[in-house]
Amino acid sequence: MTTRIARRGTRNARYAGRQAARSRYLAIIARTGLAARGVMYILIGWIALEVAFGHSGKQADSSGALRVVGTSPVGKVALWLLVVGFVGLALWQLTEAIHGAAEPDGHKASKRVAALGRTILYGFLAFVVLKYEIGAGAPKSSNSQSKDLTATVMAHPGGRVVVILVGLGLAIAGAVLAYKAWRKDFLKHLQLGTAGLTARRVVERLGQIGGIARGVVFAVAGIFLFVAGVKANPGQAKGIDGTLRSFASTPLGPWLLALVAAGLVVFGLYSWCEARWRKV
After folding, report:
1. What is the rounded CA–CA span in Å between residue 53 and residue 171?
2. Which domain, by its residues, includes 148?
3. Whole-angstrom Cα distance, residue 225 to residue 153?
4. Which residues contact 135 (CB under 8 A, 6 or more apart)?
5. Longest Cα pair distance anywhere in the chain, in angstroms?
């Protein structure tokens, strides 16, 4: 009996050790992915800032950001790091979709479905970056992708309704993201116990400002998609680049675009903070 109990204890210890090792590996790849996301947002925001002041003809989206990275002196290495980062994010979100997130309500069905959606998104980004890296095709602009996808969906029966619902859902999701950022809900996902008071305040401001800017961009993109469905005109759909450029058409002109673009850069910096302090 004693021997059996000892063997069982040994197996449990080995299992716990394997689980701990997996958790460490998962934390590493998740944090790498968050850092990669930060790079992408900083580049998109920077390009948008240049667009606001008429100094860039690049696309202010992931395709433009990849071209900036690819033409840099360390382009090859940087692109591979982005591939690894987005694969890491996809794997991390996949584990949360399967097992639940590391938070009190992380096992809710809504949380798992959202994690699955992010798994698909980050997996797609990893695929796009990989294709660009190996020379299998330059990424299309987000505007072209949005219009093509909207036209394809509308070509099917009921497609117009789907576009309207997706646009409405994206607009609502963006508004919720902005509202949660304003309330600082993101703090519950962070472990700031070891951070100093100044660092905590900086992280709070970065997350709040950056999160609001990201939410606003998503919400406006959703509105454009909703309008495209209502008017049955795929050309009304806009990607991130078109959405950002639309801010310059408001009465505030390029200054509003510059403000939102700066917010995206801030969100990129916050993503780096998440890479350091996020609960994974």
Report:
1. 27
2. 2-277
3. 12
4. none
5. 81
Identify any residues that bridge with 190 across adjacent strands, giving them in sequence order. 278
The type of residue at 172 is I
Residue 86 CB coordination number (10 Å): 25
Work out how many domains the chain is built from and give that number: 1
Token pair of 49 as six digits: 């800032």
Strand residues in 56-187 grouped as ranges (E)? none
Q: Are the CB atoms for 240 and 62 separated by under 8 Å?
A: yes
- The token duo for 63 is 């395709």
Long-range (24+ apart) CB contacts under 8 A made by 108-116 are none
Which residues are CB-contacts of 12 (< 8 A; sequence separation ≥ 6)? none
pLDDT tens, the chain, 280 aa long: 545 544 554 444 443 434 443 467 778 888 888 998 998 999 999 988 988 887 667 777 777 788 888 777 777 788 888 888 888 888 888 888 888 776 667 677 777 888 888 888 888 888 888 888 877 776 777 778 888 888 888 888 888 899 999 999 999 999 999 999 999 999 988 888 787 889 899 999 999 999 999 999 999 999 999 999 899 888 888 888 888 888 888 888 889 999 999 999 999 999 999 998 888 7
Measured between alpha carbons, how far is 243 from 141 in angstroms, rounded to an integer?
A: 12
